[in-house]
Amino acid sequence: MTKNIRNISVVLADTQFLTNEALHSLLSPFYQAFYTVSTKAGLQQYLQKETISLIITDYTLFDFDSISDLEELRKTHPEIGIVILTNLITNVKIKELHDVGIRNIVLKTDDREEIFHVIDAALKGKKYYSGDVLDILLKKDGPHEDASLLTSSEIEIVRMIAAGLSTKEIATKKHISFHTVMTHRKNIFRKLGVSSSPELLMYAIKAGLIDNIEYHI
Prior knowledge:
alpha/beta; Arc Repressor Mutant, subunit A; 6-stranded parallel sheet
């Protein structure tokens, strides 16, 4: 990329100091404005007062509650490109992001050219996964293939179970009936071939649906 300043404003939503400093040094010479934020409130302030073209975020470290926050961001600001720049991502989470319309993903271990490629693609409304992300996406061995059979709603319920929520609490949080949650649970158990909550959670950890520090049994 030649060093011509483009009439584009970028927001980096990340909480890692070194990441923020490195990306500011790398990218700010090429764009009209480059902002960094560490909270959703800070992000909303920029979205309200500035014309933002691109958001770069590590959604796992930022204070998004879930991928549904990113989905809402896409719906309310469809004109803004979103790039996921993260340390680690699983096949399942790539699929979840894809399902909400976010298809520009690179890893923090990727090189300079990958970062510029994904930014250019996002600004043009095109899809771009770095080579390492494609390797993860195309990998079909292990439990990922079965886990990918779950819908986004079912994955959300698995994570709520992992967080220790009861069926009643899940129903309240998702604004659905107790019976609907029970139906989802049965479908999840059937699809994954498990018969108990502990078995479900261990399977979910191996499949990358949750981290082993996220669950309570």
